[in-house]
Amino acid sequence: MKSRRLRSVVAGAGVALAVVAAGPALAQESAPAESASPRVLSARDTLRINQVAAPRLSPDGEWVLYTVTSRDMDDPDLEAVTHLWRVRVDGTGNRQLTRGSASATAPAWSPDGSLIAFLAARGEEPEATAQVHFLYADGGEAWPVTEHDEAVRAFSFAPDGSALLLLVQDGLPEEEEERRREHGDAEVVDGSYQMTHLWLQDIRGATQPSLAGNLAPAPARRLTEGDFTVANPDWSPDSRQVAFETRPNPTANDGWQSDIQVVDVETGEARLLHENGGSDTAPRWSPDGDTIAFASNATPTSNTLHSKLYVAAPDGDRPTRVLLENFDRNFTVPTWAANGRQVFWPTGDGTSTGLFRVSVESGAVVSESAPGGRNSQWDLSEDGTRWVWVHASPVWPAEIYTAATGGEPVRLTDANAWLRDEQVALGAVETVRWTNGDGETVEGVLTKPVGYEEGVAYPFIVNPHGGPTGASLAAFSAESQFFAGNGYVVLQPNFRGSTNYGQAFISANIDNWGITDYDDVMTGVEHAVAMGWADPDRLICYGWSYGGYLSAWIVTQTDRFQAVSPGAALTNLYSMYSTNDIQDYLASFFGGTPWAETEKYRRHSPMTYVADVTSPVLLMHGGADTRVPPEQSVEFYRALRDLEKDVTFVRFPREGHGIREPLHQVDRLRRYAEFFGEHVDNPPVSERQPHEAEPAEESEESAP
Q1: Mean pLDDT for each consecutive 10-residue tract of the chain (704 residues)?
Q2: Which residue in 203, 141, 209 sits closest to 166, CA to CA?
């Protein structure tokens, strides 16, 4: 495709997801009205945003299951819990189904719609593991159905309702447990793995709590065995076979070395459906059981090339076909139309994600119309007449939506009414475009400050995304809205290397880290200055992961910024290669390993130019990060200290590549606000507003 943007076409055979300009469902997503002293989003407020997920349509298409993750703001640790909810497709009858301190996740309907299943780790012992539980569709107490030694990672009902398919990681072998007891827990790197395999749980007789309470669950039967790990299984429509992914081991670096197998449920005999040197993922059976669709990338190394749609006969009696070879967007997870003649899949396009459809017979592609922003977790009714999905607009957090064939989207949830009730003011969000140094168009997401006035230049933040094969979307971002509440303009550029703009755009930063992407970011900054949005004397740059790399690179290349904060940043690509968990992905950008391409790794490393840093630097990193090891920040910090530069390094204990612990999340945002504010004369207002919901301090009289 030559065009960067796909046209939205609604075909008669598809489900039209028309965008409502001013309907009752979408009108509620407008940012609250601003007052003279607007209530803005604080760091703690970002934790109050409830997260909806996992919508699942009932077999009759009348009900939707979903989950809500909320946080107890009075809890000292700010712990979050996830529970199941149910709502009719007309938006009525919304009801919470599970309660308590244990989360309930992965909701699913039984094939006849009478039961709801979910995963939960319930029990008094602290080592309780996630097991499958059932409850009646009209409510009541849940009861356990599985009793596996290890946690159940995922499950699905057999279409005939007779069994559950379980995805379970192997426990340690008995001899290994004994060795650890006697000799300690030393381990040989890459010496052994705990694989994940398929198990079959018979549920006949376990569908009534009276029986389940008196009878132990039937023993699960192992369905796959071997020196490989399993993921993403899918039942055949007749409940006799299961298609699934296999990989040689569970390491992240070998994630693309996946193939597709099919196993006979009765005999346990497995056969290879498709293999290549690259990645084969997400197998899905057609409604008639005659075809399996899956995503595949034939390149035999880690890479950033688009996956294509493959369709194969389960028994191998027809040649495998490849679709979308000339379609310049990525293929992800297939969803079959009820008639078996089309395949739907979600993918990104520009600053939105949407739904696409391809004819299996002709290969013709249609872009279904969907609301702008982030659209994900699509689920299609059994008769193919209704979708449910999760939609996040530019100025409102994610909610559950539904649309019938030819109908308008209807919002089913109102998970964050407190934003409206408390009149929290939010900044406007839009997609902007500029021309880079090579005369090409680049897009980005611009968030304006609360109370924005035309003609006023504001303190400005440029925030490059991670990846680099990712993209910033014009969808609600609590972090960007936190900065908007503190008076910043925020630009999130989709520089060359980003997804959603075609293969050539993704590949443009191969051998070009810090060159093409730097040009796109800096021309975006200049565009913001020229448009009058950004004060050229109050510029900030920060990012995480690859955005951290770009931030570290930028601070070594220019003195334009008053403060820069690289987070989880790659700073020394030579040492990064051997210490991170996806070495081959890094090597794919530079044509080989550091010892084969030493000069490339040196030339594109911020550490090479660290002596040129002039801006104040705030480094942040998770102490247990394996994707970008914290030593990357340690190296940069030590160099800056030795050079007597202005640098602060904050390390978050126990955190991996993302910051998960809520107290750390709040701390991180507040550090940004204070650090940025100090250097551009913009003290944070969000943390000083009188309605800031801090926990009450105990007095000496009330303390126990």
Answers
A1: 31 33 39 67 96 97 97 91 96 94 95 96 82 91 91 96 94 75 78 89 74 60 94 97 95 90 95 90 96 92 89 90 93 96 94 94 86 93 96 96 90 96 96 97 98 96 96 97 98 97 95 97 98 97 98 98 98 97 94 96 98 98 97 98 98 96 96 97 90 46 34
A2: 203
Instruction: Quote the tokens at residue 152.
Output: 């159940």
Q: Note if the bond before 464 is cis, omega within 30 degrees.
A: no
Gap between the Cα atoms of 113 and 106, Å rounded: 16
Query: Could you tell me which residues are beta bridge partners of residue 469?
Result: none
For residue 399, count CB atoms less than 10 angstroms from its CB and return exposed for 0-12, middle for 13-18, buried for 19 or more: buried
Nearest of 87, 79, 128 to residue 107 by alpha carbon? 87
Q: Are 521 and 464 in contact (CB under 8 A)?
A: yes
Indicate the residue type of 154: A
**Residue 458 CA from chain centroid, whole number:** 31
Tally of CB atoms within 10 A around 315: 11
Predicted local confidence at residue 20, as pLDDT: 35
User: Which backbone phi and psi does 363 adopt, to 5 degrees?
Assistant: 85, 5
Closest alpha carbon to 96 in 116, 79, 72: 116
Please provide the size of the chain in residues.
704
263: CB partners within 8 A, 6+ apart: 198, 223, 224, 241, 242, 244, 269, 270, 271
What six digits make up the tokens of 458?
């504001």
d(CA 118, CA 58): 14
Question: How far apart (Å, rounded) are the C-alpha atoms in residues 480 and 445?
Answer: 10
Beta bridge partners of 386: 404
pLDDT the model gives residue 317 = 84
Three-state DSSP state, 389? strand
Residues 71/660, Cβ–Cβ less than 8 Å: no
Distances (CA, A) of 188 to 179, 193, 254, 430: 13, 10, 18, 51
> What is the CB neighbour count within 10 angstroms for residue 407?
15
Residue 60's CB is within 10 A of a number of other CB atoms, namely 12
Cα(first)–Cα(last) distance of the chain, in Å? 69
Distance CA 353, CA 653 (A): 34
pLDDT at 185: 79
Which strand ranges, in their side-by-side order, compose the sheet holding 229-235?
229-235, 241-247, 259-264, 270-274
Q: How far is CA 471 from CA 235, 498, 546, 597, 701, in A?
A: 33, 5, 11, 28, 53
Give alpha helix (H) positions in 248-324.
none
pLDDT at position 368, please? Answer: 80
Return the closest-CA partner of residue 71 out of 478, 651, 658, 400.
478
**Mode of pairing for the β-strands spanning 152-157 and 163-169:** antiparallel
State residue 662's pLDDT score: 96
The pTM assigned to this predicted structure is 0.91
* CA–CA distances in Å: residue 509 to residues 96, 514, 568: 47, 8, 20
A 10 A CB-CB count for 484 gives: 29
Contact 236, 289 (CB under 8 A): yes
CB within 8 Å of 259: residues ≥ 6 apart: 245, 246, 247, 272, 273, 274, 275, 276, 280
- Rounded to an integer, what distance in angstroms lies between the CA atom of residue 256 and that of residue 245? 11
Burial label for 97, CB within 10 Å (0-12, 13-18, 19+), is buried
Query: How far, in Å, CA of 676 to CA of 192, rounded?
Result: 46
Question: Tokens representing 672?
Answer: 């940004």
Element (H, E) at 46: helix 45-48
CA dihedral 581, 587, 590, 593 (to 10 degrees): 110
Residue 85: what residue type?
A: W
